[in-house]
Amino acid sequence: MDITGMYDNETESFLHKALTGKLQIDPGKVLPHMDKPQKDEHGVVISNPYEILSLVNKNHALPSDFVPKDLVTPDIPFPFTEDLPKKQVRKPAAKALEKMFAAAKKDGVNLYGQSGYRSYERQESLFSAYAEKDGKAAANKYSARPGQSEHQTGLAMDVTSPDIQFDINENFANTKEGKWLAEHCDEYGFIIRYPKSKEDITKYEYEAWHVRYVGKKAAKQITKNNSTLEEYLQSLKK
Fold first, then answer.
1. How many domains does the chain have?
2. Helix or strand run (H / E) with residue 182
3. DSSP H helical segments within 107-171, as ranges?
4. Which residues fall within 8 angstroms of residue 238, CB to CB, at 6 or more apart?
5. Gyration radius from the chain CA atoms
6. Residue 42 located in a structural domain
7. Which of 103, 141, 158, 208 has the greatest number of beta carbons closer than 10 A?
8. Can you give the CATH number for the domain in which 150 is found?
9. How high is the pLDDT of residue 18?
10. How far apart are the C-alpha atoms of 190 and 37, rounded to whole Å?
């Protein structure tokens, strides 16, 4: 099961099968147990990176050795043919991406995946290059430090289109693909993770191309309220 933290129809069905003997549960067999939260110089290191609603930002980091065990390559178009790790996402996100891209194609919209999973080491290399070019403070406005990147969760994908030559930039928001993604991604469990005018909350610049899988229930609520993952999780505590 996807770890959503919510009791929904899927959870009810799963538990019914377990309680009636139709399903045998072997705790810990599929995903490894993570230790209790710890802190590093950048904040809390989250204890369960497999949580679909895990919050990864400048105050909540992933363990440096975390690599999702369920990474797969979704059946969606990419603007490159190399079999690179950035084609991969976790299984729940992969299924949702396939459905979303198929729906977009039916509407005459050509979505392409550009960058999914990214390892801690790869993010460390990227951030170092950006920091050397623009300085750490400037780089941290548009790029995550290692451990603080959603790409390491395997639940995020940067989306692009032919209209911007498969680049990743702010012009994507004005393409038909960018507009379609903003309007429909929540129907498939995704959110625009870094929305416009929310920089004071997410601490990152607007990224029309970066979608994060959170499940349909959370995605619809976040989009309806024009909010962020941070605000949504805070509302669950009330």
1. 1
2. helix 176-184
3. 120-134, 136-142
4. none
5. 18
6. no
7. 208
8. 3.30.1380.10
9. 82
10. 26
C-alpha distances in Å from residue 40, one per residue of 64, 78, 134, 142: 11, 36, 25, 21
Read off the pTM.
0.84
Q: How far is Cα 206 from Cα 227, in angstroms, rounded to an integer? A: 13
Largest CA distance in the chain: 60
**How many CA atoms are closer than 13 Å to the CA of 149, on its beta-carbon side?**
28
Average pLDDT, the chain: 90
- Please, are residues 101 and 76 in contact by the beta-carbon 8 Å criterion? yes
The residue among 203, 188, 94, 186 whose CA lies nearest residue 149 is 203
188, 234, 149, 222 alpha-carbon torsion, rounded to 10°: 20
Q: What is the pLDDT of residue 214?
A: 96
pLDDT surpasses 60 at 34: no
* Residues involved in catalysis: 207
- As a whole number, mean pLDDT of residues 62-69 equals 92
Structure tokens at 105: 């194609």
User: Is 70 part of a structural domain of the chain?
Assistant: yes
